[in-house]
Write a structure and sequence with these properties.
The structure holds two protein chains of two kinds. Chain A contains 14 helices and no strands. By secondary structure, chain A is mainly alpha-helical. Chain B starts with a helix and ends with a helix. The chains are: A mainly alpha, B alpha+beta. Chains A and B meet through helix 2, helix 3, helix 5, helix 7 and helix 8 of A and helix 1, strand 8, helix 5, helix 11 and strand 14 of B.
Chain lengths: 329, 632
């Protein structure tokens, strides 16, 4: 009964948050300076008051704010975000759909793999604190954590796409697939993987540092707890102390971090998408902000918010399973 | 139990990674599964790239340079630009649709004969009806770029007979005589556009084109693909497909050119362009194009007279209403050095608002005493003579007695744009020079949106921005009329320096209706002289177009203007470059360009890698199960 109420409460909370975000979304983008109509045309000979006024009318921006809000709520509830301003004629839904899969493929998989590798490094480093592995891995993880990912990205691009010095030019310099190559089946999968390889590698390396460091610190904290001493005193084998007693408790904060990171997948990785010209949602967001593309921004931010809220919800529910004290309140 | 959960969690993570990859692949397969077309090993593909995303591929609403590169192989103009921006001689396949022009003696009635041998890419013949339809569509639906060229047309364009269109003008004019390619517009198919409820919102992909190619596919943020128009009656192109790829940065573009992923690139970063200069198999060209970057001054938004809809607004510095202060600022800006330091020498030092690359005869070049040359001493003297003296010895001059605000120091706000690195890079130089003539500046970087607001509100002193004018001067000159000022602080206007001169406005009207083209150009020159001498803009430079290409891939570039301009003949319709480009060394033109091939590891290596990962994971988890069995 307690569990059911807990879950129901969390789901209701998630829905309320989402509703708030939806309302906030509308007003947030309208306070950014600059008019979309003027921004679309400034710098061209098409920029004149008539054209700006016509764009405003076409985009519904000449309507009073309350009217725009009603239209916005109606269309959002039916998941019809309207047409993008700067990608004229394209439905926001279609634009988002085109970018979601490349984003999940790149950022989703690299987040998960970097978390898995990072956790393992953190566990072994923390367990063998002060060992050669710990010193080495800590140096490495601190370095990759502090390293600007775009800088590493450019180096990797120059080395493995450009082929500088001893490095072979193995992979394409950018994009998601080879345009016009008409590939299908496994050849197409390989083409996508070839485009994915470099940005994926950079992101996986760049992300794993945070997981390793947090896992290591968390593990060291837990290792000093009384129940660990008790387990050892009972004669439990070291490996089992680690995997049965230390790691599960040390995992709690790390697990939350991992789940929340998954919620941010849709936000994309702007700098890496930029370096490797990868068509993800991160770069799309930057373009949409530059152009004050309200419909696209609203669609994007609703997607981002929903993903984070759902990830939070999953984290809350999973946490209550991993640590029953949470559920008991 | 907990240990099992952790391993389960890690296993789930890996499974999640594989699953999301698999899901993405399935989605991808579904997307690409609907595509048609066959693979031919002999396909010749010209692949090029830049960092520009199109604004629209529909000529009703597109306005960016990159949109035009998609239209030059796809559509015809009425009158085409020749390589020197004069009117392309009639009749050739690289000419526009007009084969003859007749006009009344009073220059108010014009009849254009339209060629009858062009066929749209869906097999429908292109007729004079398409031309009539398009011109009326643009005029009455306010197409963004083309409609300005139709302003003087009185009422509708009509069909005079099967191959002739006819229209009247509201006043006599020489603009439609064909001496200059005045109507910069692409003719679209009536049978596609006439049924559209919102023609400006039409995506136009795939397009129906009249040129040697048509737009077949557009993946936003990734690429645009053009295929051959099989009904094209002109010279057969050696290229089967044109692919334009959108990269996000110049580093990646240069890398892709070096490795042969791309055949041609346009760059915006001079130092990356420089890195390609001595590369094997790569040729480069820094061409001149119609474009300029300026420092604009608030020449009086708060002080000009009200009238004709204009209300004084804003808080621009009163000293900038004085032409001598504006001229002193112009004299303090060293265009040559800016070009050298900021643009690494690429481009042309700036003077007047009509760039060196424009319609033949349109540009006025200040010479001798007309030239406001870089002269810090002269600028200091001019300010001194005008009464701007540094009375308190702080290095900043103050406004003289009898001026709008006596004693106010010459300290100006100077806004630059975050989205344009060169505008940010130029600021320290300009600030330093201005400080040497006793003018203080406070530089602030902001987004284009913020700057637009500041300009409309008149709450600025100096700003840095730029224009991409059409080669025909009328459009550019129209921007600086009194009526184009932001009118009241909240509405929009092109005339961002608030320049207002009734003589200039009268000359603008006069050049539109001047029957003689040579006399018209004299008026155009006079307008440039007035604007230059009044100095509301200090034009820093005319931008260069930085192109680079694989010399071992294609040859037959058509450079516009010659000798150093745009190798892709960007101001044309249809562009002959699209049938003159041929693979190097391929007489028959049947050699596959490297741009078509995929790059990366072969599929079997990925297969082996996937197998290794799966086997490794299985072994890892199998090994980890053992201690669990021995739990205490």
């Amino acid at each position: 009964m307690g569990t059911r109420r807990y879950i129901f409460g969390k789901v209701a909370q998630a829905f309320l948050t989402l509703a708030f975000v939806m309302v906030f979304n509308f007003f947030l983008f309208r306070v950014i300076p600059g008019d979309p109509g003027a921004l679309l045309l400034r710098g061209t000979s098409a920029f004149n008051p008539e054209n700006v006024a016509q764009i405003q009318a076409e985009l519904g921006l000449d309507q009073p704010l309350p009217e725009q809000f009603v239209t916005y709520v109606e269309s959002t509830l039916t998941l019809n975000f309207g047409q993008s301003f700067f990608l004229r004629g394209q439905e926001v839904k279609e634009v988002l759909a085109g970018r979601i899969w490349p984003t999940i493929l790149l950022i989703g998989t690299s987040t998960i793999v970097s978390a898995a590798i990072g956790l393992i490094i953190g566990i072994y480093g923390g367990w063998k604190r002060g060992s050669k592995f710990d010193v080495g891995s800590q140096g490495f993880t601190l370095f990759v954590y502090a390293m600007p990912e775009f800088w590493f990205g450019i180096l990797v691009l120059m080395a493995f796409a450009g082929g500088i010095g001893p490095f072979p030019a193995l992979f394409p310099a950018g994009g998601y697939e080879t345009p016009g190559a008409d590939l299908s089946g496994f050849a197409h999968v390989a083409d996508v993987l070839n485009h994915l390889a470099l940005p994926w590698f950079v992101l996986t390396i760049a992300y794993l540092g945070q997981y390793a460091l947090i896992m290591r610190n968390s593990l060291i904290d837990v290792m000093n707890d009384d129940f660990v001493t008790t387990a050892r005193a009972k004669g439990v084998r070291e490996k089992q102390v680690l995997w049965r007693h230390v790691v599960p408790n040390a995992m709690l904060p790390t697990f939350t971090l991992v789940l929340l990171s998954l919620g941010f997948i849709f936000g994309g990785a702007i700098t890496i998408e930029y370096v490797f010209s990868y068509p993800g949602l991160g770069l799309l967001t930057v373009q949409a902000i530059d152009a004050k593309d309200f419909p696209l921004l609203q669609g994007l931010f609703l997607l981002f918010s929903a993903a984070v809220i759902i990830a939070n919800l999953v984290a809350d529910i999973t946490y209550s399973y991993l640590d029953p004290r949470v559920r008991a309140g | 139990m907990r240990g099992t959960r952790i391993r389960l969690a890690i296993a789930l993570m890996l499974a999640g990674a594989l699953a999301s990859a698999a899901m993405a692949q399935v989605a991808l397969a579904q997307e690409t599964g609907s595509e048609t077309g066959s693979t031919t090993d002999e396909k010749v593909v010209f692949t090029w790239g830049s960092t520009s995303e199109p604004s629209s591929l529909n000529p009703m609403s597109g306005y960016l340079a990159i949109d035009f590169y998609m239209w030059t192989p796809t559509y015809h103009m009425l009158l085409d630009y020749d390589k020197d921006f004069s009117t392309e001689p009639f009749g050739g396949f690289d000419a526009g649709l007009v084969t003859a022009i007749e006009f009344s003696d009073d220059l108010t009635n014009f009849r254009y004969t339209i060629r009858d041998d062009i066929v749209w890419s869906d097999g429908t013949p292109l007729t004079a009806e398409d031309v009539v339809f398009t011109m009326n569509l643009y005029k009455f639906n306010h197409a963004y770029l083309p409609s300005a060229y139709l302003d003087l047309i009185d009422g509708e364009v009509r069909l005079a007979d099967e191959n002739t269109i006819e229209f009247d003008t509201t006043s006599p004019t020489s603009l439609y005589k064909g001496e200059a390619p005045y109507m910069y517009m692409y003719i679209v198919p009536k049978h596609i556009y006439e049924g559209l409820e919102k023609p400006k919102q039409y995506e136009n992909v795939p397009s129906v084109g009249s040129g040697p190619f048509y737009i077949a596919e557009y993946q936003v943020g990734e690429f645009i693909r053009l295929e051959r128009n099989e009904y094209w009656p002109g010279p057969e192109p050696a290229i089967d497909e044109i692919i334009y790829r959108i990269y996000k940065n110049d580093d990646a573009l240069a890398t892709a050119l070096r490795t042969g992923e791309l055949d041609f690139v346009q760059l915006t970063t001079p130092n990356i362009f420089n890195s390609l200069l001595n590369e094997e198999n790569i040729d480069t060209m820094a061409g001149t194009i119609p474009s300029f970057s300026e420092i604009g001054l608030n020449s009086g938004s708060a002080y000009q007279e009200a009238g004709d809809g204009f209300t004084p607004h804003g808080d621009g510095h009163p000293a900038l209403t004085d032409v001598n202060v504006r001229r002193a600022i112009r004299m303090a800006i060293n265009s040559e050095e800016l070009l050298e330091k900021v643009q690494l020498g690429y481009g042309v030092p700036g003077t007047t608002i009509i760039p060196p690359v424009s319609v033949v005869g349109a540009r006025w070049e200040p010479t001798g005493d007309e030239l406001i040359a870089w002269d810090l001493e002269g600028a200091n003297q001019l300010l001194e003579d005008s009464g701007y003296i540094d009375t308190d010895g702080d290095g900043i001059r103050e406004m003289p007695e009898g001026s709008l605000e006596p004693g106010r120091p010459l300290e100006f706000r100077y806004f630059v744009r975050t989205s344009e690195q060169t505008s940010v890079d130029a600021a320290p130089f300009v600030s330093e020079w201005l400080s040497e003539i006793g003018i203080g500046t406070e530089v602030e970087a902001m987004t284009s949106g913020q700057l637009t607001e500041q300009i409309n509100a008149g709450t600025f002193d100096l700003f840095s921005w730029g224009w991409f004018p059409d080669p025909e001067p009328a459009g550019t000159l129209s921007l600086f009329r009194c009526s184009e000022r932001p009118l009241d602080g909240s509405s929009y206007g092109n005339n961002d320096a608030y320049f207002c001169n009734p003589e200039y406005d009268a000359l603008y009207e006069q050049q539109l209706t001047e029957p003689d083209q040579e006399t018209r150009m004299e008026i155009v020159h006079e307008m440039q002289r007035i604007y230059y001498e009044d100095a509301p803009y200090s034009i820093m430079w005319y931008d260069a177009l930085l192109s680079a290409w694989r010399s071992d891939r294609f040859e037959g570039w058509v450079v516009q203007p010659e000798p150093e301009g745009d190798p892709l003949e960007g101001w044309s319709g249809p562009g002959e470059v699209w049938w003159k480009l041929t693979p190097v060394g391929a007489a028959g033109g049947n050699e596959t360009s490297g741009g078509t091939g995929t790059k990366g590891l072969p599929a079997w290596i990925w297969g082996v890698a996937a197998l290794v990962v799966v086997v490794g994971a299985v072994v890892f988890f199998a090994r980890r199960r053992r201690p669990e069995d021995e739990d205490v």
